[in-house]
Amino acid sequence: MKSVLLYYPFEVAENANSGSKLRPKEIHKAFQQWGDRENVEILLLSGNSAARDALFEEWKAAGKLDHIWFCYMENQTIPFWMTDPGHMPKKPFVDKKVMSFLKERNVPVGVFYRDVYWKFDELYPLKGIKKTVMKTVYRMEENFYNKYCDVIFLPSDAMGIYVDINKKMVALPPGGSKKDIVKKEKPGTVSQGLYVGGINNEDYGLFLLLDALAIANRGGAVCELTVVCREDEYAGVPEEKKRRLQELGVKVKHVSGEALNELYRETDFAFIPRYRSTYNDFAVPVKLVEYLSNELPVVATYCAAQKEIIEKDGYGIICEDNPYDMARAITEMAKDTDRYLKNIQQTFLEKHSWMARVEKVKGSLVKEEL
Prior knowledge:
- The protein is an alpha/beta fold.
- The protein has 2 domains: 3-175 and 353-365, Glycogen Phosphorylase B (Rossmann fold); 191-350, Rossmann fold (3-Layer(aba) Sandwich), CATH 3.40.50.2000.
- Helices cover 45% and strands 16% of the residues.
- It has 13 helices and 12 strands.
- It has helices at 19-38, 49-62, 94-104, 128-148, 206-216, 231-235, 239-247, 257-266, 278-282, 286-293, 304-312, 323-352, 354-365, and strands at 3-8, 41-46, 68-74, 109-112, 151-154, 168-171, 191-196, 223-228, 251-253, 269-272, 298-301, 316-319.
- α4 (128-148) links the parallel β4 (109-112) and β5 (151-154).
- α1 (19-38) packs across α13.
- The longest helix is centred in the last third of the chain and has 30 residues, at 323-352.
- The chain is globular.
- The model has no long low-confidence stretch (mean pLDDT 94).
């Protein structure tokens, strides 16, 4: 029986409260479903370095690693040598041991390379000698992938120019999940818009969205907005900005889980109003696929990676990161929501589910058998 090795050089979070924690769990689950369908055993090698080393040796001795077809690896935003508690690995050479074992047996390996924020001085918080040391470690990690991996999976094609690894690169953005969607009847003619995310960073564009909303509603109500954010973030918002939310009649909620799902069912479309930047051009917000999984068309700014996904299959409207063009997009979306909704229903899960991501990993790493 063939097997596929998933290599996660970190402990998988029990509470997946962010995209970086959710992704490893979701793609593992999709691999398990795919393995059941294709009669392939899925082996997950994860945990701290000591646990990985012990399990690797156990599997090797038992012959469980004799028929590995390919290996898929995830990384984190810190180099994998530093993912143990306290950032000090008990078994610092286990990753080299595993990858050398696979290389000797010509097992193709692909790694999802999550982020390159450390290459942007305006984003990377460390200074002085700590910054120099950490950048050196990050470059060592890139060299490691260059030596042992065959394919580098990235959040988007646009990120590739910032990755110093001379291997095949393949876009593997976050995937969507199948939901049981039962939309609620809209009580009136005014569209219901939704923003879920951070509100304490200008880069996220919430107050750009508010300016656009004021313009769109100038001649009569077109769209009402609900904002979902963390309670502690909202508490830290300056009073003049809270007044701005109140003046525009924006509902602010602090919900998650089923309460958020209920809100999705009451909403017509959603917003990703990020300001365009070099970094935002290659980032794919997890909220994008969450919105689309919940059959919400999206009004989003023209950051390259999200623009490509939304425009390619007609999942929403793209606008510039200024209030007037966003107001234009809001007005257009309010008139034509059903067309974008139909596109999502027809193709999103087929092209962008986690299972579709697994198929892409497999297709990128192994040749089709004749």
